[in-house]
Amino acid sequence: MPELPEVETTRRGIAPLVEGQEVTEVIVRQPRLRTPVPSELAEWLVGQRFGELSRRAKYLLLPIADGHLLWHLGMSGSLRLVPIGTPPRTHDHVDVVLGNGQVLRYHDPRRFGFVDFVRGDPHADTRLARLGPEPLSDAFTGELLFARSRKRRVAIKPFLMDNANVVGVGNIYASEALFMAGIDPRRPAGETSLAEYERLAEASRSVLAAAIEQGGTTLRDFVGGDGKPGYFAQRLNVYGRGGEPCRECGHEIMSLVLGQRASCFCPHCQS
Question: 84-120 burial, b if ≥16 CB within 10 A, otherwise e?
């Protein structure tokens, strides 16, 4: 699944060729996504120019004069730019044709993503309004996690992955951040100290920033806005490495299920 770094990588990749461009055509080949593509999408977009692209959690926001396109990549979606006339592949569901001769093309084999149009402030939309702070913002701190974790019996890994506490720290990056912070993912959130949460917040920022810098994580169908795969997977310490030796201490990486998600950790480094 594309996580926050993949979405941010996509935003950075497509922004230079999308911002300021006029929409000349919208082609919807498959409207049945996670939520149906609005039938008025072409009517709303054609003739409009995109402003500065932004991101909230895993949502991309593409502004026009009276609202925003709200785009979510789902489990297997990708947005890339291709020249006009490039033949569509299977699962290329939506094209937004731009005045500069480029096509913003949405590809999604599983169709769990969606594109919608939101008028007014997009952050007031119910899908965004209840989200926690961005992990790379000043609002995300160890003190915040510590305060929200008191009396919580849930394991710290699913607690960190809860979008109400902080957005975008999905399975891959939660596993890596907990390893970097030296915290067992099974630890009850309410039994984790302030000092440990400060380490965890810093580790989360560090691992996400590194992933964004390297273009995201190569997983399944993910590619960035330029059509190239991410490369952060080469640096993963624990995620997907169950049964392999820890890169730090040589102990076997353990694998288990937490919160219905596969979790890998080093029982020696993460005590």
Answer: eeeeeeebbbbbbbbeeebbbbbbbbebebbbbbbee
Span 206-222, average pLDDT: 70
Q: How far apart are CA 78 and CA 223, in angstroms?
A: 6
Whole-number Å distance between alpha carbons of 50 and 52: 7
Q: Are 243 and 27 in contact (CB under 8 A)?
A: no
pLDDT tens readout for residues 194-203: 999 999 999 9
Helices (H), 130-193: 142-149, 156-161, 171-181
> For residue 29, what are its two tokens?
């080949």
Q: What is the pLDDT of residues 15-47, one digit of tens each?
A: 999 999 999 999 999 999 999 999 999 999 999
Phi, then psi, of 228 in degrees rounded to 5: -95, 145
pTM of the model: 0.86
Percent of the chain exceeding pLDDT 90 equals 84
Active site residues: 2-3, 58, 261
Beta carbons of 130 and 162 less than 8 angstroms apart: no
The secondary structure element, H or E, covering residue 70 is strand 67-72
Mean local confidence (pLDDT), 48-52: 97
Q: Give the three-state DSSP class for 190.
A: helix
Separation of alpha carbons 267 and 51, rounded Å: 48
